[in-house]
Amino acid sequence: EQDKVKELAMAYIKEANELQKVAATGDAAAVKVQFGKTGESCKACHDKYRKD
C-alpha cells in the first residue's frame, strides 16, 4: 500500500511544517493545538502500519 503510506507521510510532513510555523509565533495555545494535529497525523500511520 505504498500510495496510502505516501499519503499519510505527506500529511504528517504538512502538519509538522505547520507546527514549526506556529511554534515560531510563541503562542502556546496555538502550539498545543497544532502539536495535537501533528501527533494525530503521526498516529494515523502507526495505527495502520506499525507491527505489534
Features:
elongated; 52 residues; 2 helices; 88% helix; mainly alpha; 0% strand
Structural overview:
The protein is mostly helical and 52 residues long. It has one domain (2-49). It has helices spanning 2-25, 28-49. It is elongated, with a radius of gyration of 12 Å. The mean pLDDT is 94.
Write the element-wise H/E pattern from the N-terminal end onward: HH
Total helices: the number is: 2
Shape descriptor reads: elongated
Strand content: under 5%
Q: Given the helix and strand composition, which structural class is it?
A: mainly alpha
Q: What characterizes the major β-sheet?
A: none
Helix content: over 70%
**Alpha-carbon distance between the two ends:** 18 Å
What's the structural blueprint in terms of helices and strands?
Elements: H1 2-25, H2 28-49
Helix pairs in contact: 1-2
